[in-house]
Model the fold of this input.
Amino acid sequence: MYEDNDNLYLVSDMDEDIKKRKELIEEAKNINADKNWNEIYRQISDLRRKWRRISSWESAYEDSLNEEFESYIDALYAKRNEVYKNASGIKEELIAQAKKVAASNDLKHATEEMNELMNQWKQAGSAGKDDDALWESFSLIRQSFFDKKHEQWEQMQTKFSDAAAAKQDLIQQAKELANSEEWQKTSTKFKELMDAWKAAGSAGREKEDDLWNEFNEYRQTFYKARNAYYEKLHVLQDQNLEAKNELIARAKAINDTKSYSRENTKQMKELGVEWKKIGSCRKEKEEAVWKNFKEQMDQYFDGLRQANEQKHLQWKQRMMEVRTRKDELMQEQKRQIKRMQEDIGNVLGERAISELEQRIEDKKKFIEELEAQIKDIDSQLSE
Done:
């Protein structure tokens, strides 16, 4: 039973492969022989690659299909031979194609084309007396191409070796930086190393991945530590921001009282001291939060200055009023002294004269006191 099932599968696979071959035969049959031979050639090459990929069951029917397939291909080549008249024309065309292929920089694709041209050369047959000369031309082109390919391969190996050496040096530098805690400076350095890594070029498939993995491991060691540091720093900075916003709220509350007492002034100064003790809350937020705090501080101390100026003005006015009263009192004392001096001649009795003179002397002393007081007031007002 199992053997029967296996046979069924084999028959199914064989039928599928035969179906594929028939489809390729149909494609070969429908190739337009009047098209450009390069296009025809590419189609033939593609069909042959597909044909070779199909499994062979070594059946007579497959042989007949192969013959049919080759008959259409041969017909195309026959048409080509008819166009070129003879093998010499075919080979001259192959030489021209080989020159174009040899100039290509796509060495992988060009190698496939050059090998296919060689297959066509073999199929072209003898060109008689011109065959050796044609072959020499064709062979020189092929040799030149493969020499160029080998030279480029050697150059590529040299580049790979140079790139590998450069990347080993970059890996060593990355290793030395991996545990650095100079986050900003080292981040810049790792960026420079990454730019240098890209500029170094490939070290080849055999080494590139291993080199990159080692280099990247040191990079990731640093970046993971840096990210962990900044995550903690951002938590602290958020706390600092909250603390600074609290100081702003307290400053605003004091401002809103419009009271410029010693106690409020002391509290505002203490808020400034507290602000300086709080760390940064990140550069992008620091400017805005400082602006808000400074506005509150400026507003309060501008109000305090204006209040002090008002108090000073009121004090000055009071002092001027006091000075005026003292000056008026002093002038009155002088007038009294003058009257007393005028009346002293009319006073009878030595005792009365003595008392009057004493009164005059007392008033003079009082005037001196008033003058000293006025001078002191003037001194205070001039400060």
In short: The chain has eleven helices and no strands. The radius of gyration is 55 Å.
